[in-house]
Amino acid sequence: MSRRHPALGRDRLFDLVDDVVVELGSRTARALLMVVAVGLSSGSLLASVGISMSAGQQIEADIAASTLDVVTAQVVPPTTAAAAVVADDTGPGRIVTILPEDTDERVARHDLVDAAGRRLDVSGSATAEVTRTAVRPDPATAGARAAVTPVVGVSAGYLDAARAQVSTDMQWLLDTDEDVVLLGRGAARALDVPLTGNLTGVQVWLNGEPQDVVGLVSGGTGGLEDAVLLPYRRGLELVGNDREAAVLVRTLPGAGAPVADVLAVTLRPDAPERLDISRVASVDTLRTGVATQLDRLAAWMGTVLTALTILLIANSMVVAVTARTAEIGLRRALGFSRGRVAQVFLAEGSLIGLLGGLVGSAFAAGSVVLICLANGWSVLLSPWLVVLGPVVGAGVGLAASMYPASRAARISPALAVRSD
């Protein structure tokens, strides 16, 4: 049984490569046009995918940043019967609470939480009259003054969650039960407390008891600029219960929904129904939908461009087959089989596609970078996009050359030789 010598296979491969190079070199303009066509199609496909990925990442970041990052938990008002029980249990020195003592710490342990703290509005629930001096003014003045200086008990974490600024570093005193207050700038003006200078020795009186002013508060949410802020424990002592208390949670961008889902269980695992959690709409479905639509758009654009390129190259190579009919007939007369004739055109198409794919990779990478920079996006360029360019190009070239190669292989040698 005869065996084909390995050298014969190598010679045929070298002859095939030589034929393809000579043919492309003799028709340089046509070859360059087809390389550019493949480069533009494969590059546009890869660029559309890359731009879609970068745009999707930017849209997800924008959606996440636009979602609410604040969650609140409020104590559910008790029923009539429960309120009567609470009233019976509440007495001198007895405090009834729904929120645990370590509320701030429990919430802050969550990885998606930036800051958290408690708030209890004292005014309206207990007597809380704030004056600038120990001498109480007349009732008319006191009433007006009390109306513009609400008293609120807060923890230190609440100011962080509310994004309030404190003029000193004494915010931590709000987690103690010391006789201190922080004044909102509006409340300080109402109480004639200076807004500049050292606050050492400055006091206000709460229900006739002196309170050291340890800082001024500006900004933030919840009307803090017009309030007198007590340590949360002091406010709880004045009210006697936390039925009007609330927990403010500041989450990381886009994390409002997942934090809201677990907040009640985190605070009261034994009775989560005792807390009313603000609802934060989840945008996960929207983000997934946007990413899916962008991927579909990129896929359809790439498919159309690739199909047009395949038709363009196939048409060009069919014309080339017609122009080279005599050459094909001569090859067949010299002993070339149908398969070897087809191999020449398949190799030409693959080589053109491979070169076009390299051009496409460079085009895609440059397009993605330039478009992202022009729009201020973060560039997301996956290495596989660059590597995939030559593969896509070679595939396009091979697919486009299949029909021309099949047509060339079916040409009759006798008719081909007489065609000129």
Automatic annotation (TrEMBL):
The keyword Cell membrane applies. Keywords: Cell membrane, Membrane, Transmembrane, Transmembrane helix. Residues 302-413 form the ABC3 transporter permease C-terminal domain. InterPro entries: ABC3_permease_C, Macrolide_Exporter_MacB. GO terms for cellular component: plasma membrane. It is found in: Cell membrane. The chain crosses the membrane at residues 297-323, 344-377, 383-403. Its main location: membrane. It comes from the Bacteria. It is a multi-pass membrane protein. GO terms for molecular function: transmembrane transporter activity. Coiled coil: none annotated. Belongs to the ABC-4 integral membrane protein family. This is FtsX-like permease family protein. It comes from Oerskovia turbata.
